[in-house]
Amino acid sequence: MEPTRRLEPAKRRRSNTRARLLAGALEVFAERGFHGASVEDICERAGFTRGAFYSNFGSKDELVLALFQATTDRLLEQIEALLPDLASQPGTLLDAVLSLLDETAPDQRQWHLISAEFTLHALRDPDAAEALNKQRTMFRESLTRLVEQITETSGTTLTVPAEQFVRMVIAVHEGARSQSLLEPGEVPAGSLEHTFLPMVLEAVSRPSR
Amino acid sequence: MEPTRRLEPAKRRRSNTRARLLAGALEVFAERGFHGASVEDICERAGFTRGAFYSNFGSKDELVLALFQATTDRLLEQIEALLPDLASQPGTLLDAVLSLLDETAPDQRQWHLISAEFTLHALRDPDAAEALNKQRTMFRESLTRLVEQITETSGTTLTVPAEQFVRMVIAVHEGARSQSLLEPGEVPAGSLEHTFLPMVLEAVSRPSR
DNA sequence: TGTATTTAATACAGAACTGTATCCTACTCC
DNA sequence: GGAGTAGGATACAGTTCTGTATTAAATACA
């Protein structure tokens, strides 16, 4: 109907292979790491040959960047979708924050692997660091706004800046997840967060003047 | 004098090149990651050619294992040396624990990179996971004993198992260090730990009956 | 001092990976 | 339905890496 209609099939094909390549890369990076995965590995996983790859990306580095962007975009979208519910609806402050941290990562293990890989990459490459920090900042700001909204509506004040508190929650979450994945039997997912973070929240909470 | 005297020079030469190769590997792994570092890179850094490498190690994997063992041994030795002082001497419980975490890692950045690399490796390889968990367990047990000693002598009881508390401290420490390294300006090293962990300790401390 | 042994350098063969150039196929559009 | 184009496969050249086999040097030992 619309002129775009006629153009779609061709464009859709292209963006579909891009998507499949990105999805394949995600899997292979999680399994073998960034350096351990060859372009060939990625293509094979996606069901293509390297012809398709180099027709869509200039290099593995470029794909990594695209993958990071795609992941970031999806993540921030999800947050935007979840925020209103969490801010208004039922549970406590911590439930809201922790569920946001969890629900944005359907597969904890894969997400952690990819995330750790990116972080390591960023610690070595200033450009990657800037991109990662930009993403983390936006993520953190969303969480901070969430915390501020909930404390306000519940008549509570924090004795530290909300962002500082969010940083602490993130630190605990990441450190605890690492332990849970290394020793699934010893450290059930979420146990450290749910044991100790309420104590922290309690310690920094005061009823509003 | 002793018969060992006569044997030393030859053995010393060999173990010296092993040590230099291990030291070179540590640097190169920190810079480019485990997969990103070639055997050649490591040899070059250590001032050898691959001949020396393959005369001392069967493969890069074998060297990684040896490096992990050497690092672990050194770490546990250091702990043994530090524990008595920390347990008896001056400051608070948290100062003792945190200083143990810090002083065992002279170069925070390099240590974090290597540590993260090993962890990532362990999350993919069950054998590496077992080795890493064994080391982490011993490290954690040392910290737990330290906590137990200090609480006892100070007439305090914890409302959670000491090990659980130690796990929390480790989680915060690792998560916070990651943030500090990514954003040195925004998160000074140790700031999150020193802001929030005292609150946690306070919350789980009770005077002994 | 001379011989044997150990250690590391050098030379080499093979494998894996990358990136490009070319070809084929399936759409698009007239 | 036929020419033109875009997407992806195939083939190839060049590089890098690994691991081994051989050689040279240093050390031990007599």
TrEMBL record, chains A, B:
<dbReference type="InterPro" id="IPR036271">
    <property type="entry name" value="Tet_transcr_reg_TetR-rel_C_sf"/>
</dbReference>
<keyword id="KW-0805">Transcription regulation</keyword>
<feature type="domain" description="HTH tetR-type">
    <location>
        <begin position="15"/>
        <end position="75"/>
    </location>
</feature>
<feature type="DNA-binding region" description="H-T-H motif">
    <location>
        <begin position="38"/>
        <end position="57"/>
    </location>
</feature>
<dbReference type="InterPro" id="IPR001647">
    <property type="entry name" value="HTH_TetR"/>
</dbReference>
<keyword id="KW-0804">Transcription</keyword>
<keyword id="KW-0238">DNA-binding</keyword>
<dbReference type="Pfam" id="PF00440">
    <property type="entry name" value="TetR_N"/>
</dbReference>
<dbReference type="InterPro" id="IPR050109">
    <property type="entry name" value="HTH-type_TetR-like_transc_reg"/>
</dbReference>
<keyword id="KW-0678">Repressor</keyword>
<protein>
    <submittedName>
        <fullName>TetR/AcrR family transcriptional regulator</fullName>
    </submittedName>
</protein>
<dbReference type="InterPro" id="IPR009057">
    <property type="entry name" value="Homeodomain-like_sf"/>
</dbReference>
<dbReference type="InterPro" id="IPR039538">
    <property type="entry name" value="BetI_C"/>
</dbReference>
<dbReference type="Pfam" id="PF13977">
    <property type="entry name" value="TetR_C_6"/>
</dbReference>
